[in-house]
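Researcher: Next entry in the queue.
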Amino acid sequence: MSDYGTRENEEIFSKVLRAGRRTYFFDVRSTKAGDYYLTITESKKFTNDDGSFHFKKHKIYLYKEDFQGFSDILAEMTNFVLEEKGHEVISDRHQSNYTRPEPTTSAATATDETTPTADRFTDLSFDDI
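Model: Structure for this entry, 129 residues:
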């Protein structure tokens, strides 16, 4: 029996980054020839209508010969974003600064059921979807 099936799943070194509904797994694995490569997996939790949940996963396989180029471009791209937009997370700022508009109290809107008012809307965070 080949040890390929067990070797493919063998994790040599692992780290986990939890980020809200997303979790990133960084795993060093071994090839059949005994060399190492890196897998980066993004796992995102989704909730079904019935309350159950499932995960969607996306995986990147990164081999040693690509490490330097990948690292250089990743550093360049992250530096660009931070220089252009800073470290503040904009979605957090919007959530903390958001105030619900006061409902209109005029007689016209109070009696007109076709006119939407602020209290007919629900606060929704896209992280909840």
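Model: The chain is about 30% helix and 30% strand.
Researcher: Noted, moving on.
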